[in-house]
Amino acid sequence: MGSLYYANFSDPIEIPDRLLAHLKVVIATKLRRGESFTLSWRNLPSEGGRSTLWLQPAIPLRFLFDGDEAEILNPAFMRELAASANSSGGLAVALDREIPEVEDSRVGRMAPATA
Fold first, then answer.
1. What is the pLDDT of residues 83-97, one digit of tens each?
2. Res 103: pLDDT
3. Residue 25 burial (10 A CB sphere; 0-12, 13-18, 19+)
4. Which residue has the higher pLDDT, 111 or 3?
5. How many CB atoms lie within 10 A of CB 28?
6. Tell me, what's the pLDDT at 115?
7. HSE-up (13 A, CA, CB side) for residue 27
8. Mean local confidence (pLDDT), 100-114
9. pTM of the model
10. Which of 28, 51, 58, 74 is most exposed, with minimal Cβ within 10 Å?
11. Whole domain around residue 59: which residue ranges?
């Protein structure tokens, strides 16, 4: 289980590593372009309700992954997330959603980001 740290809040948002890896690419792309948008999800049943964050380039984000290896990203799923992020409703995700595995062997692991 990965963690997304937003602004200066000390409590992270827990997101499965595989989903977080896809979100990182979509979010970083939008923020690099200077685009602001919302990220929404349903809270865990124990918390109830739903949450939304306003993401903009000036607000610090930290992506913390539990696993040591970079995830193999599914391009079709990233396109789906990007379309959601570009909609008027913003980027909406289901934290418990299973992401289809990549069947194309030409798609490799993403190289770790350098500082």
1. 999 999 999 998 887
2. 62
3. middle
4. 3
5. 13
6. 36
7. 24
8. 52
9. 0.83
10. 58
11. 2-22+29-68+75-93
Structure token pair of residue 4: 């997304």
For strand 91-93 and strand 37-42, is the pairing parallel, antiparallel, or unpaired? parallel
The burial class, CB within 10 Å (0-12 / 13-18 / 19+), for 19 is buried
pLDDT value of position 104: 53
**CA–centroid distance for 59 within its chain:** 15
Q: Which amino acid is at 49?
A: G
Question: Cα separation of 84 and 22, whole Å?
Answer: 13
Residue 50 within a domain:
yes
> Looking at the domain assignment, is residue 84 inside a domain?
yes
Residues in the chain: 115
Distance CA 20, CA 48 (A): 21
C-alpha–C-alpha distance, residues 89 and 4, integer Å: 21
The total of structural domains in the chain comes to 1
Residue 27's pLDDT is what?
A: 97
Q: State percent of the chain over pLDDT 90.
A: 63
Q: Which residues pair with 53 in a beta bridge?
A: 39
Is residue 114 one of the residues assigned to a domain? no
In a domain, 112, yes or no: no
